[in-house]
Amino acid sequence: MTNPDHWTTIRNLVAWLDEQNGRSQQEITLRLLKLTEEAGEVAQAWIGTTGQNPRKGITHTAGDVADELCDVIVTASVALASIVPDPAAHLDAKLARIAARPRTP
After folding, report:
1. Distance between terminal CA atoms of the chain?
2. Shortest CA distance to 79 belongs to which of 7, 14, 6?
3. Is residue 7 pLDDT above 90, yes or no?
């Protein structure tokens, strides 16, 4: 089995969501709000790695946190691909602007 590149997978996910739910402004809003849900799962997993909740103890691993971070990346990529025609180019341009920012020691 071959692994498709990141943007092929994202385009397939967007197409599937569009087929299931359409691409109305409300649907785009929900795709953006999904980011908040996923970020919350990152926080929950991180808290679970520290055992901060004494009632629950240690419930997650660093691998769980990494998986949740990947979910955030995929969800953000789907949202981006839902609002711009070329999400890869948009991300590349943004990364170039970030890379060009001056950094102070």
Report:
1. 46
2. 14
3. yes
